[in-house]
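re: ur msg from earlier - yeah i can do the adenosine-5'-triphosphate complex, just paste it... oh wait u already did. ok heres what im feeding in:
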Amino acid sequence: MTLAFETEGLVKRFGKTTALAGIDLAARRGTVLGVLGPNGAGKTTAVRVLATLLRPDGGRAAVGGLDVVRHAARVRRLIGLTGQYASVDEDLTGMENLVLIGQLLDLRRAEAGTRARRLLADFGLAEAAGRPARTYSGGMRRRLDLAASLVGRPQVVFLDEPTTGLDPAKRDDVWSIVRSLAGDGVTVLLTTQYLEEADALADDISVIDHGRVIAHGTPAELKHLVGGQTILVRPTDPARLPEVTAIVGEVSGRTPESPGRGVVTVPVEGDAAFTEVVRRLDREGIGVTELSLRLPSLDEVFFTLTGRHTGEEAAA
Ligand SMILES: Nc1ncnc2c1ncn2[C@@H]1O[C@H](COP(=O)(O)OP(=O)(O)OP(=O)(O)O)[C@@H](O)[C@H]1O
Ligand SMILES: [Mg+2]
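and the outut:
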């Protein structure tokens, strides 16, 4: 198995704060590893060590089989990094930013220009290419950041919360960029606080908390940790919600919840319960606009693992 990057027992301290407490991460070549964790979990720190920007205090990290401390310069030639905070020069145009990066990477000016134009076109920025980056919207800035990390045709790309703060349409743009990178054989480490995002993009997910991996697996494996499935029903006529609640409660033997207006959900084991709910709804003549059987969300996974929701701080 060829690993595009890996960390083993990686430790990083900042004064009294242990940001990484012995973290193990690995991604096979051409896959997307989602590193999922709440604020302060250590995501950015892990990325910065892998990207040779921070020296670890213990353990090791390698990219393309090269140790990030001993072979930092060679590692830098393999990677692209999009930081959590924008890294482009505000006063330069989109085109100038990318050409500058190309030249820093030793491309000849003409070559850097060709590469920049290609990336700007790929990222839907061709029309804005001649405008200073400070005039770009948040979504355009993010795309320029992503393009900047790809100028050097990296084999491994680190994307640190690439969609934080983007509206859903712009988030979808970034998602399709990540998918096309992976399709081209690039290995991606994607950090995110969005469980849905890791689910949508990652081949494997490492859930981290307080600088440690607390779970690792495919999205489906992580969801199975919680066990069982969830039935969701939204009756066409909201007035019939109490009847629906009674039906799903009886069939499942569990207490249904109402996570939003007009819908009811209940955990079930096995899909026989689903068939039974459908039969009962039909018999009572209750029409539905939404009816589903799904695996738990990754937020429910995090809650199962830690006893906390992703937004909550651990009790001191
Ligand atoms: N340069 C630094 N100096 C001191 N403490 C730091 C530094 N960088 C990170 N930390 C601390 O290390 C811990 C991990 O931080 P890190 O930025 O890696 O988390 P994160 O998972 O990226 O969080 P977020 O989702 O908020 O970006 C936090 O407690 C943070 O306060
Ligand atoms: Mg971070």
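cool cool. Residues 168-183 form the longest helix (16 residues). ping me if u need the other ligands too
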